[in-house]
Amino acid sequence: MLMGKTQISNCYIWPVLTEDEDKGHVWLHQRSSAGFEPNRREVYKLKCGKKEIHCEMHKADTSYKRRWLHRLQANSQVDQDFKDNFPEGYEEGLAKDRTPEKFNEITHQHDVLFMSSHYRIELGVKPNDVIHITLLK
Predict the structure, then answer these.
(1) 3-state secondary structure of 103
(2) How many C-beta atoms lie closer than 10 Å to residue 40's C-beta?
(3) pTM: predicted TM-score of the whole model, two decimal places
């Protein structure tokens, strides 16, 4: 479990699944599992620069990532999902970068925060940003 203050650098921003958009959850994928217990749901303060949010944090486990891969493979749904999930800056080319291969590359190279558009707006981050965050318990 995270205790106190945890710094995460080079954290890639990815949207939550459409069905999770309105739930107020943030899902964290860490390349190493150190520091975050699976199956724990706790409220954290997430800081990015001077902006912060309070959110329920989940571990983005294999099941969550598999659901995203299935969504990416259903290309007919991907474009609409991104139009729905990126109202603050949808670009046609952005959906084309969302492939299973790109997803696997990102999750192997970065820690990833899966965030709703609401939280991205609150933190002032955009899709594909790589940011430094602080988690406070």
Answers:
(1) helix
(2) 11
(3) 0.78
Q: What is the pLDDT of residue 89?
A: 53
Q: Which two tokens stand for residue 116?
A: 């709703």
* Strands 42-48 vs 5-15: parallel, antiparallel or unpaired: unpaired
Model pLDDT for residues 52-86, shown as the tens digit of each residue: 999 888 888 889 999 988 888 775 455 566 666 66
Quick one: pLDDT band at residue 1, thresholds 50, 70, 90? Answer: very low
Residues for the chain: how many in total?
A: 137
Residue 115 and residue 127 in contact, taking contact as beta carbons nearer than 8 Å: no
Q: Tokens 């069905």 — which residue? A: 19
Strand partners of residue 1: none
- 25-29 and 51-59: which strand pairing? parallel
Q: Can you tell me the distance from the alpha carbon of 21 to that of 117, in angstroms, rounded to the nearest whole number?
A: 7
